[in-house]
């Protein structure tokens, strides 16, 4: 989430990426278990998410460089659902929240455990949420399509909640990935307009973008490969890019070590080619 966080920092916000319990290498067990698919408890899962966000915001409030009197929450997918739950139980300084493709219980594309219960959870949270929210769902979201998202919105706003709903144009092969580095040009304007309407513009002009690493794309990459390389360049460390002689590639970012990133990049590259080698690690070209 580093590139996404940078976009908010460019606009004057102190941008903090939170790892909720049970995700990645965070300590403790997974706190957001909603139970079996046949009878999920989405309300309990959302409440657990909100509890983690409450704790994180309270901890940040002890820092001299953080002003928790004006906080916006932003989340995607399960994090979007967590943001909805937070809006229903807001800390004192939460002034707005943004939900990208939020939902829970999607085991596979176009398959959600007990959709009715998920809609009921949105209805439950909507009776309590009053801060302004922006919801963005892309037309080709394979997990929570706009038709389903509109049911979430109807249930949520039925109790008086304040939501600006945007059905965004299709993004890539799966719009569930709209809130991504590659989608910045598509979603940042939606966020800017929403924050402006809420009087939450920190800077009239965003700070300049972080300079892109001065690395040229390998000549044998296809058009798709060059697009992937552009995304690689803006992705966070530790990262690695692997390549075969005939232009097949694989990459991975956001790893704890360069060794893990290199191993992941090689694994993905070898799904299409027998012989691959790592050609970039973080922002350095590897000499062979």
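Sequence proposed for the structure above (288 residues):
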């Amino acid at each position: 989430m580093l590139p996404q966080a940078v976009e908010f920092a460019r606009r004057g916000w102190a941008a903090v990426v939170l790892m909720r319990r049970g995700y990645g290498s965070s300590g403790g067990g997974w706190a957001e278990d909603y139970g079996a698919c046949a009878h999920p408890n989405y309300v309990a899962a959302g409440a657990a998410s909100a509890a983690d966000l409450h704790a994180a915001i309270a901890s940040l409030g002890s820092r001299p460089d953080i002003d928790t009197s004006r906080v916006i929450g932003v989340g995607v997918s399960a994090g979007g659902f967590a943001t909805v739950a937070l809006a229903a139980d807001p800390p004192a300084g939460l002034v707005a929240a943004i939900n990208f493709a939020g939902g829970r219980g999607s085991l596979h594309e176009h398959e959600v455990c007990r959709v009715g219960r998920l809609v009921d959870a949105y209805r439950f949270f909507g009776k309590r949420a009053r801060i302004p929210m922006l919801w963005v769902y892309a037309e080709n979201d394979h997990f929570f399509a706009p038709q389903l998202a509109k049911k979430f919105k109807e249930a949520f706003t039925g109790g008086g909640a304040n939501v600006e709903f945007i059905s965004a144009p299709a993004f890539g092969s799966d719009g569930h990935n709209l809130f991504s580095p590659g989608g910045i040009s598509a979603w940042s304007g939606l966020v800017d307009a929403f924050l402006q309407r809420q009087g939450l513009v920190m800077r009239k002009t965003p700070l300049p973008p972080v300079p892109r690493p001065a690395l040229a794309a390998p000549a044998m990459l296809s058009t798709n490969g060059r697009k992937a390389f552009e995304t690689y360049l803006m992705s966070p460390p530790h990262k690695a890019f692997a390549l075969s002689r005939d232009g097949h590639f694989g990459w991975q970012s956001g790893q704890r070590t360069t060794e893990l990133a290199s191993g992941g990049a090689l694994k993905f590259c070898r799904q299409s080619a027998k012989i691959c080698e790592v050609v970039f690690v973080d922002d350095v070209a590897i000499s062979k």
